[in-house]
Amino acid sequence: MSLKLLKSTLTVGGMTLVSRITGLIRDIAFAQFLGSGLMADAFFVAFRIPNFFRRIFAEGAFSAGFVPVYAEYESSYSEHQVRAFLDLMAGRFGLVLLVLTLLGVVGAPGLVSVIAPGFEDNSEKYHATVV
Known about the structure:
The chain has about 130 residues and is an all-alpha fold. It has seven helices and no strands.
């Protein structure tokens, strides 16, 4: 195994470990401050959609599709053309996320009805989630 590969493997492994530890701290903080009641339910339902998009765009299909295209672009074109491509993609990505965010804000009541249908019966949970 080359030294560069070993260093990269240790970096990724170390950062994954840090991520898991900070996730544990986050979960402990949620349990401490939100408990297991109304506010915790509202919080977790409200964050289902953003977490779904995070998984797709940051950890999933978008990365799997974009990285090979970027690598191909980087090996075939000049640094200026690669920068222009990245600027174009970042602008389009930002625009798509802006539109999805606005749709989510406007459609929050409908989204809550779909994601957590039982919340409609409990107006306090429903309003805490929508707001």
